[in-house]
Write a structure and sequence with these properties.
The chain is mainly beta. 10% of the residues lie in helices and 18% in strands. This is Zinc/iron-chelating domain-containing protein. It holds the Pfam family CxxCxxCC.
Length: 123
């Protein structure tokens, strides 16, 4: 199995993805959980229902890309889920090359809490 190095973008909920022999993503979770009211990122997938516009330098497979009003975006299934979200594990199948927008999304921040229907923390 291949381990992915952790980066600072993995933030509080640190995890690395692995692949099973059937090429299904699995995850090893090491969580520093300061957001006890939120689920772990790994396996949640709620943020993967947002439209993700690709930025210059994003290297995702072209078969996962669509164009909306001239902007290149990750394609989505009819339920709004990103096509890179595994339907069973709820893990990103292109984690190593996921778009920068996805890398920048942080568990517990305002948008995360909004998606999950949780109140924002006042800092």
């Amino acid at each position: 199995m291949q381990r992915t190095p952790l980066t600072s973008a993995d933030n509080i909920n640190k995890f690395s993805h692995e692949r099973s022999p059937e090429n299904v993503p699995t995850v090893c979770v090491r969580s520093i959980n300061i957001h006890d009211d939120l689920p772990d990122c790994a396996g949640c997938g709620r943020c993967c229902h947002l439209v993700v516009e690709l930025r210059p330098g994003d290297l995702v497979p072209e078969e996962l890309v669509v164009t909306h009003d001239g902007a290149r975006c990750m394609d989505q299934h009819s339920d709004g889920a990103c096509v890179a979200l595994h339907p069973v594990t709820r893990l990103c199948t292109i984690y190593e090359t996921r778009p920068q927008t996805c890398r920048d999304f942080n568990r517990g921040e305002s948008l995360c809490r909004q998606i999950l229907g949780r109140p924002s923390l006042v800092g």
